[in-house]
Design goal:
- The protein has 4 domains: 361 residues, PAS domain (Beta-Lactamase, 2-Layer Sandwich); 155 residues, Beta-Lactamase; 204 residues, Hypothetical protein af1432 (Orthogonal Bundle); 129 residues, no CATH class.
- It is of the alpha+beta class and 974 residues long.
- The longest helix has 68 residues.
């Protein structure tokens, strides 16, 4: 709003314009202008003084840098000169043969040890002989240039006369312990010291000499040489000083990031530099000469004055120069840096002063404007306007003369407005985040009470029968403590809630008698105004009613109209939340019903698993509740959210859904020969045929003149043997006993007996059976047939491509055959009634469970259903299936389901192939499984100590199954 708004508003009220209004503006403006001028002068003077101080300090710093570099160079050459003089006075200078010179290698290595500046030491003689020791440790580039063997620390380069008088070269490589590694002849090594300035100058002068900078013959590095003539005048000792180390020191002495430090000789050749892009002490690749300063660089670095300011490329630089005199050579040192970097601190102080001045000016501006506002009272119109916005009306408000009161009133009005907006936003935010329906409705009721400044709020929901049922009633932020009665739309037509459901929003005034009739427990002694608003969904259907009560006269009629607009907005949000919650609840009930339908279908499919899919969730929930109640041990922090509980319940119900794909005859296989029917009846018929054939043979023998009593006695004995063999086969078929090797041998012997087939066995068979018989050789009838056999047609092989990609990701290994119905093969099953192929098919139900659950579009909050359900046959020791997980890789909920599945299977009483197991026996088996690493030992201990095993037994087991269990025995064993 502009500054003229208050005056215009005051004019509309015909109030006199305050005469000091414009004066306060002028005074505030003048005060701010003076403050700005003072701040500007202060900042400029402070910056100039700081700049002068820093420039002076920079000059001193440059001089110190030059001195440190000069001292460093002097010390560098001094230490190198000492090494040269040491070599000149050593016995090695007088050595006449290469062997004598090699004996001095330890002395040379001692002079070169460490990271000093001397990188090579050598001797040259007037006959052209040369002996050099070079340090290679820590210098991979030089070692590579010389093709030094691995582990070389020093190399000797020598040139000495051969027996024939010719000079020949040799390289000897030493390790760190000065043991020779390799000796390499170098006939083409033609380095003659007599042709080198260091030799000739030192030999002529007799004093230590320093060469000018040059590129070293062997390494290609930049450096200088210090040479000293040895006693006797025939030899010269010298050392090479590499400038790479000096360049590193220059980089450390740079006074600023962009500064340049250069060491050069009298011909402007660069020995070492930092900050100009060069690698100090090294020449450019392929160059044979030293780098030379360009004219542009000379303009920056050279000058008459020791310290000066230079304009270089449009930027001010500060420069300082100095010289270093060495024997036979003078070196120059130049240091230059941009003044902007040297004055960075001054600039920072200037910027900080400007920021501080700006902050002071802004604070002063705020204070001036606040004081002028208090003086002219321009805020009273804004207070009235804020109150109008709060009440959703635009009527004029009386002026308030006290400026402090106006400010306070404006703050209160704005605070109330913000509170109203905040409550609306809280409701909108709570709609998607609140999962509990009753809590959500209570939150809406409480927030609506704040928005409407009401006393009591209640929400009724429409039932399918048409009745209106109260679900929440609040007085302020607290529950009312009781709920009103349900309303019958026919019997309670006059009730405001019923009227609102039929007619729309209703405003009414309830007398004390009306309150006593409608809400007798409210105990009100004063009449109240009520506002009832229907809650409608997007289709316009009434989902419920929101009713508010407030003191009579709290709001005028206009206020009620404005308030109704806000309340209807809140009711729309509440209706959306109710509809969403109902849809979610209905979808959840539908999902649970479908899941239970699938589980019930699996149970009804086979009497062997009847009730399994219903009882496993019961055990699972009981054990998970016990884990939540634990206050110590590994489960003391175990708690499941509502979403995690839902995941666990769904996984428990669906854990065996893959059994839909398991053939029924495998699930229900009670004997070894059973498929769709029990094939022992076919075998019984064969035995009958064998008996009849024996009888026919006996009567034929008698008819042929054989002794009748003896023949019939032999027939009776044969029949007894056949009956005994069949009884043995029938007993094997039951699978109740473990098959020993002798039993299998007897089976094979019995199977070797034959009977005579006189009918074609390809008649009356299906096309699939005919395909299995394809390739079998034809046999003329009558044909002998074995009593028991494993025939090729009994075998069904797996598809050529093997299992699909989904199955191959699991560790559950599939047998080579899809199925094997061989009679001897199945009768020889060592334990139980299932062969390997059928056992795999049963175990495969877990993979199918994972496959089926993986295809269900579960929301993200149910994303672990597959993991929980698919791991219920895994073992703690990793020997389970289908993934072979260990206990650490299984979630706690999956381990709970695994234990529940095993316990239910052990105690189930609806398995027709075995008697119901007692509780104590089932617990004993569980203890063995714990000891074998099958189930979680902590869960098993909780299963016992919490009493879950007995609670489940009392609800789901027969009375004859429940006996005493000594849990202390199993806990002690753990």
């Amino acid at each position: 709003m502009s500054l003229r708004s208050p005056s215009l508003h005051l004019q509309s009220l015909r109030l006199p314009m305050p005469r000091h209004y414009r004066l306060s503006v002028y005074v505030s403006t003048l005060f701010l202008a003076l403050l700005l001028a003072f701040a500007a002068v202060t900042v400029v003077l402070q910056y100039r003084q700081t700049k002068a101080i820093l420039l002076s300090a920079s000059s001193i710093l440059f001089d110190r840098v030059g001195q440190e570099i000069s001292m460093s160079i002097t010390g560098l050459y001094g230490s190198a000169g000492s090494v040269a003089r040491l070599l000149a006075t050593s016995p090695a200078a007088g050595a006449a043969t290469l062997e004598e010179r090699l004996a001095a290698v330890p002395m040379f290595a001692g002079a070169l040890a460490g990271d000093g500046p001397v990188e090579a030491a050598y001797l040259g003689w007037d006959d052209g002989a040369f002996f050099l020791v070079r340090r290679l440790a820590g210098r991979p580039a030089v070692a590579a240039r010389l093709a030094a063997p691995e582990g070389t620390a020093y190399v000797v380069q020598s040139r000495a006369p051969a027996p024939d008088g010719r000079m020949t070269g040799r390289y000897v490589f030493y390790d760190g312990a000065l043991r020779p590694i390799e000796t390499r002849e170098a006939p083409d090594y033609r380095y003659d010291p007599r042709e080198r300035p260091w030799f000739t100058d030192a030999l002529a002068s007799g004093q230590p000499t320093v060469t000018g900078p040059y590129v070293f013959f062997t390494t290609g590095e930049i450096g200088t040489t210090i040479a000293v003539r040895a006693a006797g005048g025939r030899a010269v000792a010298a050392v090479d000083i590499a400038m790479a180390g000096l360049g590193d020191e220059l980089a450390q002495l740079k006074p600023s990031p962009s500064a340049r430090v250069v060491v050069y000789d009298g011909r402007s050749r660069v020995l070492a530099a930092a900050g100009d892009g060069r690698q100090a002490g090294a020449r450019p690749a392929g160059a044979t000469q030293l780098p030379v300063l360009e004219d542009d660089e000379k303009a920056l670095l050279f000058g008459d004055a020791a310290t000066a300011s230079v304009d270089w490329h449009g930027e001010a630089w500060l420069r300082a120069t100095s010289v270093v005199d060495l024997p036979g050579i003078r070196l120059g040192i130049a240091v230059a840096a941009p003044q902007a970097e040297l004055l960075a601190e001054a600039n920072r102080l200037r910027d900080w002063s400007l920021a501080l001045s700006a902050a002071v000016v802004l604070a002063a501006a705020a204070a001036a404007l606040a004081l002028s506002g208090l003086a002219t009272r321009p805020l009273r119109a804004l207070v009235a306007e804020a109150r109008s916005i709060r009440a959703l009306k635009f009527d004029d408000t009386p002026p308030v003369t006290s400026p402090i009161t106006e400010i306070r009133a404006l703050a209160e009005a704005m605070d109330h407005m913000k509170g109203t907006i905040r409550h609306l936003l809280d409701i909108s935010v709570s709609l998607p985040n609140e999962r509990d329906f009753e809590s959500l409705m209570g939150r809406i009721a409480s927030e609506t009470i704040h928005i409407a400044s009401a006393r009591v709020a209640a929400i009724y929901l429409a039932e399918p029968s048409g009745r209106l049922k109260p679900i929440v009633a609040r007085r302020g932020a607290e529950p009312l403590g009781w709920l009103p009665d349900e309303l019958d739309p026919e019997a309670d037509r006059s009730h405001p809630v019923v009227r609102a459901a039929r007619e729309g929003s209703v405003r009414a005034r309830l007398s004390v008698g009306d309150i006593a009739r409608l809400y007798p427990r409210l105990g009100s002694t004063q009449p109240v105004d009520v506002l009832a608003v229907p809650l409608r969904n997007r289709g316009g259907d009434v989902l419920g009613v929101l009713i508010l009560s407030q003191a009579v006269g709290t709001f005028a009629d206009a206020d009620q109209r404005d308030l109704l607009f806000v309340i209807e907005a809140v009711s729309g949000m509440a209706a959306t939340a109710i509809e969403t919650q109902r849809l979610l609840a209905e979808q959840k009930r539908l999902l649970e019903a479908v899941i239970e339908l699938v589980a019930d279908a699996i149970d009804r499919r086979s009497p062997y698993t009847g009730g399994h899919c219903r009882r496993v969730p019961a055990i699972t929930e009981m054990l998970a509740r016990a884990a939540e109640r634990a206050t110590e041990g590994v489960f003391r922090d175990f708690q499941l959210t509502a979403e995690q509980w839902e995941e666990l319940r769904i996984a428990a119900w669906l854990h065996d859904c893959g059994k839909i794909t398991t053939p029924e005859h495998i699930v229900d296989k009670a004997t070894k020969l059973e498929t769709v029917h029990n094939r022992v009846h076919e075998i019984r018929t064969r035995f009958e045929v064998v008996k009849r054939e024996a009888e026919v043979a006996a009567w034929k023998a008698i008819a042929g003149g054989a002794d009748a009593p003896a023949t019939l006695a032999g027939l009776a004995a044969a029949w007894a043997g056949i009956d005994a063999d069949f009884a043995f086969v029938a007993a094997c078929n039951l699978g109740s006993e473990v098959m020993a090797a002798d039993d299998v041998a007897r089976l094979r012997a019995i199977g070797g007996r034959t009977w005579t087939r006189t009918l074609d066995d390809t008649l009356g068979i299906s096309n699939e059976e005919r395909q299995r018989l394809a390739g079998r050789p034809e046999r003329p009838l009558p044909a002998p047939e074995p009593l028991l056999a494993d025939r090729p047609e009994h075998v069904t092989r797996r598809p050529a491509g093997g299992e699909d990609a989904f199955v191959r990701q699991f560790t559950l290994a599939a047998p080579a055959l899809l199925q094997n119905r061989g009679e001897i093969y199945n009768l020889s099953i060592a334990r139980g009634t299932l062969n390997a192929e059928e056992r795999y098919k049963v175990n495969e139900h877990v993979i199918e469970t994972i496959r089926m659950i993986g295809k269900l579009p579960f929301p993200s909050n149910l994303g672990h259903v597959g993991e929980i359900a698919g791991n219920h046959h895994e073992r703690i020791d990793g020997n389970g299936y289908p993934r072979g997980l260990t206990g650490d890789a299984m979630s706690r909920r999956a381990r709970i389901l695994a234990l529940a599945d095993v316990f239910e299977a052990l105690t189930a009483s609806d398995r027709p192939y075995r008697r119901a197991m007692t509780l104590s026996k089932a617990i004993a088996i569980l203890a063995e499984m714990r000891d074998e690493g099958h189930i979680d030992p902590d869960l098993f201990a909780l299963f016992l100590t919490s009493g879950v095993y007995r609670d489940y037994a009392e609800r789901h087991l027969g009375r004859d199954q429940i006996d005493e269990v000594d849990i202390a025995r199993y806990l002690a064993a753990a």
